[in-house]
Design a protein that fits this description.
Elements: H1 5-17, H2 20-27, H3 31-45, E1 50-52, E2 57-59, H4 61-88, E3 92-98, H5 100-106, H6 108-117, E4 121-127, H7 134-137, E5 141-144, E6 153-161, E7 163-167, H8 169-175, E8 189-192, E9 198-202, E10 208-211, E11 219-220, H9 223-231, E12 236-240, H10 245-249, E13 254-256, E14 260-262, E15 266-273, H11 280-294
Parallel strand pairs: 3-4, 3-5, 8-11, 8-12
Antiparallel strand pairs: 1-2, 5-15, 6-15, 7-12, 7-13, 9-10, 9-14
Helix pairs in contact: 1-2, 1-3, 1-4, 2-3
Length: 298
């Protein structure tokens, strides 16, 4: 394009005000800048656009025709500005994928506050623990428990998922309380998903203890079911601290091996399509929940 948009805006302003000085004041530039822009525009078009007198500036016949085209351009630019402003506003639909169990305790409780803060935003929520090709499937973001392998995704860590070993008071009363990780080999350990190896380090040491031969009569890929089974006194399990916080406070579950730290830590992440500019609605979601979860001690 051989025309500068600033020159076109200047030409429209001068044409409406019929005065270079007043046009300079309106646009917040010097009169010499106005003169240069009009001169550049006339050189670019090869048209004499303005007839200058000592009292005012008027459009030539060709200038009138050119002015009409410039006004049309100006209106389209205004619509473009409105579009950009709307994009910057937190509005529209946000399609998200959430892990059910984690979200029940750490996303859903805050959604009312989030939507009150952004009342023009609508959420389309899909629930799954499994990674989804969010770009191919048309989602804006996903909360995952592992860093994505896809190179075209941005990653923002939400929270570290600290693990602890727990059991019901009834189970421990009947079967005894393990004092060391190796004592777990003599207990009914309930396994969540593929987490079949429990690893520990003693807090006063750095040597790790890996338990690969855990004995248990239940393996389940649903964390909520595992918790219900432990509450029922069926066995011992390793759970996310955030998942059993209330039950521990209510003394329905007891943490054990507190002198040891579970190595089986994971983290939750928000992943979303990479790009030079992140969508404002995605940024709003990421910033809001990072701030909320940063205040949680798990």
């Amino acid at each position: 394009m051989k025309y500068d948009l600033k020159d076109i805006i200047t030409f429209i302003t001068v044409s409406n005000l019929k005065n270079f000085t007043r046009a300079a004041e309106r646009l917040g530039v010097s009169k010499s800048v106005i003169t240069t822009r009009i001169s550049d525009l006339e050189k670019a078009t090869g048209i004499n656009l303005l007839a200058r007198t000592t009292k005012e500036v008027n459009l030539t016949t060709d200038g009138h025709n050119f002015f009409n085209h410039c006004q049309a351009i100006s209106r389209r630019v205004e619509k473009l500005d409105d579009f950009i402003d709307n994009c910057k506003e937190i509005t529209g639909s946000l399609k998200i994928v959430l892990p059910p169990y984690f979200s029940r305790y750490h996303i859903i409780p805050y959604l009312n506050e989030f939507l009150a803060k952004y009342p023009k935003l609508k959420l389309n929520i899909n629930l799954t623990e499994n990674p989804v090709n969010i770009i191919k499937e048309g989602f804006d973001l996903q909360v995952r428990i592992q860093i994505p392998e896809e190179e075209n995704l941005e990653v923002s860590k939400l929270i570290t998922n600290r693990k602890i070993v727990c059991a019901s008071p009834e189970y421990l009363k009947k079967n005894g309380t393990p004092k060391t990780p190796k004592d777990l080999l003599n207990h009914n350990c309930l396994i969540f998903g593929e987490n079949a190896v429990w690893s520990f380090v003693k807090k006063s040491k750095k040597q790790s203890i890996n338990l690969r031969d855990l004995k248990g009569n239940i393996i389940c890929d649903n964390g909520e079911i595992i918790k219900e089974l432990v509450l029922a006194g069926i066995g011992i399990t390793m759970k996310s601290a955030c998942d059993i916080k209330d039950e521990v406070q209510q003394k329905k579950l007891v943490t054990i091996l507190d002198n040891y730290e579970a190595v089986n830590q994971t983290s939750f992440y928000i992943v979303y399509p990479s790009g030079r500019v992140t969508s404002p609605k995605i940024k709003a979601f990421v910033d809001f929940f990072k701030d909320k979860l940063a205040k949680i001690d798990i």
